[in-house]
Amino acid sequence: MIKQNDQHRPCCAYLSKCINGFISLLKGMAVTFGYFISPKKIVTQQYPENRETLQMMERFRGHLLMPHDDKGDHSCTACGICEKACPNGTISVLTTKDISGRKVLGQYIYRFSQCTLCNLCVESCPFGAIVMGKNFELAVYDREKLTFILNTSPGELE
User: Fold this and answer.
1) pTM for the predicted model, two decimal places
2) What residues does 93 pair with on adjacent strands?
3) What residues pair up with 92 in beta bridges, in sequence order?
4) What is the end-to-end Cα distance of the chain in Å, rounded?
5) Are residues 108 and 76 in contact, defined by beta-carbon separation less than 8 angstroms?
6) 130 and 148 Cβ atoms separated by less than 8 Å
7) How many CB atoms lie within 10 A of CB 66?
8) Which residue has the higher pLDDT, 77 or 153?
9) 108 phi and psi, to 5 degrees?
10) Exposure of 61 in the CB half-sphere (CA atoms within 13 A)
């Protein structure tokens, strides 16, 4: 025999879900209305209209860069720690020897098309020779254009 309270429980559960859904809707609409009243709180960027003033967030990870000083020198010592830290072989550090027989950096090859932007290479570099850039407009039709030699100074590229 079914008790009378058991027959009404599905109805109560349904009404409870409807009321909770309506309350959730009102909370969401309150947030939307709050942004409508004070639009300075909005964090959405109006891209591409604000391309000149667009500032990426501090934690944004773009493609890998090797900063050069005014003389065109970099601080990479070709130790290869970043190459070993890279999980998928995006970085190739090709070394040569100078006149005195010391190992120096020949080419620092970075394949952006394979990069997962995990930042492990930057964190592992003991000299701070590489950083993550802020540029995100790197769409190309040819994948070969996404292979960069980072130890060339910007004036030497073309």
Assistant:
1) 0.68
2) 108
3) 109
4) 88
5) yes
6) no
7) 20
8) 77
9) -115, 100
10) 11
Task: Give the burial string for 113-147 (b: 16+ CB within 10 Å, else e).
Answer: eebeeeeebbeebeeebbeeeeeeeeeeeeeeebe
Name, in order, each residue with C-beta under 8 angstroms of 97's C-beta and a sequence gap of 6 or more: 103, 104
Residue 77: pLDDT band (50, 70, 90) is: very high
- State how far the Cα of 52 lies from the Cα of 54, in Å rounded to an integer: 6
Question: pLDDT tens digits, residue range 35-45?
Answer: 888 877 777 77
SS3 content of the chain, % helix, strand, coil (to 5): 35, 15, 50
Which tokens go with 114? Answer: 């394979």
Residue 122's region, left for phi above 0, alpha for psi from -120 to 50, else beta, is: alpha
Residue position matching structure tokens 């407009």: 137
